[in-house]
Amino acid sequence: MATIRISEAEAARDFAGLMARVRAGAEVVIDDSSPAVRLSSIPARQPGRLLSEAIALAEARGSAATLDQEFARDLEAVIDSHRDALNPPAWD
């Protein structure tokens, strides 16, 4: 889609519609503000790498790391040491 240039007032009138156009691939430039503002979508987050892919990558790079019982115990210990509930600060 093409770049759409609009004023700040136009953007405020139908922000939901504006966002729908951005999600559909349009780039929107609000050009009466200083500096101008550009709205565009960002690529969707990709899921993490599969364990099999990580192992293949490590092997291709010559790594000698192995996922053995000792590694599993270490990983469980790390997870167990951080089981406390997340209590983020309350922002005003």
Explain the overall architecture.
- The protein contains four helices and three strands.
- With 92 residues, the protein is α+β, with helices and mostly antiparallel strands.
- The chain folds into two domains: 37 residues; 30 residues, no CATH class.
- The protein has a three-stranded mixed sheet with strand order 1-2-3.
- The mean pLDDT is 82.
Task: Write a compact overview of the structure shown.
This protein has 92 residues and is α+β, with helices and mostly antiparallel strands.
Structural class: alpha+beta
Largest beta sheet: what is the strand line-up?
1-2-3
- Low-pLDDT segments, ≥5 res: none
Give the radius of gyration.
Answer: 24 Å
Distance between the termini: 39 Å
Number of separate strands: 3
Query: What is the domain total for the residues?
Result: 2
Sequence of secondary-structure elements: EHHEEHH
Number of helices: 4
Gross geometry: elongated
Largest sheet: 3 strands, mixed
Strand content: 5-15%
Helix-residue proportion? 40-55%
Mean pLDDT: 82
Features of the shown structure:
92 residues, alpha+beta, 2 domains, 3-stranded mixed β-sheet, 4 helices, 3 strands, 40% helix
What's the layout of helices and strands?
Elements: E1 3-6, H1 8-13, H2 15-23, E2 27-30, E3 37-39, H3 51-60, H4 69-80
Parallel strand pairs: 1-2
Antiparallel strand pairs: 2-3
